[in-house]
Amino acid sequence: MKKNSLLSLCLILILSLSCKEDQKQKLDKDTSTEETSSKNPTFSYDTKTISKDSLDICKMNPCPKLDIEYLHITDATNAGKKINQLNEKSLTEIVLTPSDSIPQDHIDKSVDKFMEEYANFKNDFPDSHAVYELYIRQEKLFESDSILVISSIFYNYTGGAHGYGAKLYNTYDKVNAKRIEPKALLKNEKAFKAYAEGMFRKKFHLSETESLNKNGFFFENDEFKLPENMAITKDSLHMIYNPYEAASYAEGDIKLSFPKKDVETWLNY
């Protein structure tokens, strides 16, 4: 009798320990899933628009040409909110008017400033036929577990002989919710720069020793430099020199793209 009781007690202890171990494994799995989700957030998006038709001020006053569509992360996570803020800050730098020196924090405020500047211009020069213009289009160029790349095409005109149009790439660290500077995309900037210069010279049929600036470029001290805009996508690395960055406005932008397999040894992402 005592022997049976002892066996029963042992069986109960074994089953109890087994259940606790199963619960622990399930808890560890759930925790691991939550950590993975936190470290690799997946975002959802919509598009926000601002146009003269949507602004009350334009119903009673002359307004500039205005057409803005920008990407907005709809997730209520801290990372999503922070990247939205950083993205809007980058947009406000596009909307800067001649009288502005410091970008606003939000695109709405920048648009208000743009409208105010145009109203002042029309008051000062009522006979001028010039009309301010602001055009922005954004799209998600690439997204991985760790980075989000947003491409912005814009055109801004606030008087003068012509406006200014360009394409901008912004790369965001999804985990830490911060902007990644273009050069931080590279683990070996010096080596990649040498490679990029060789490809640049090949594109424009220049030898290794020919002067860049004597062939129409604007590099400081006649020394090749990487552009301010670089973006990594699934299969490629893209570089863009916008007007005035490496050549005249008339030359437009200069684009180079490299297969990722050819340059990945120098990349951080």
From TrEMBL:
Domain Deacetylase PdaC: 59-163
Domain DUF3298: 188-260
Domain of life: Bacteria
PROSITE patterns per record: PROKAR_LIPOPROTEIN
InterPro entries for this protein: DUF3298 (IPR021729), PdaC (IPR025303), PdaC/RsiV-like_sf (IPR037126)
The protein's name: DUF4163 domain-containing protein
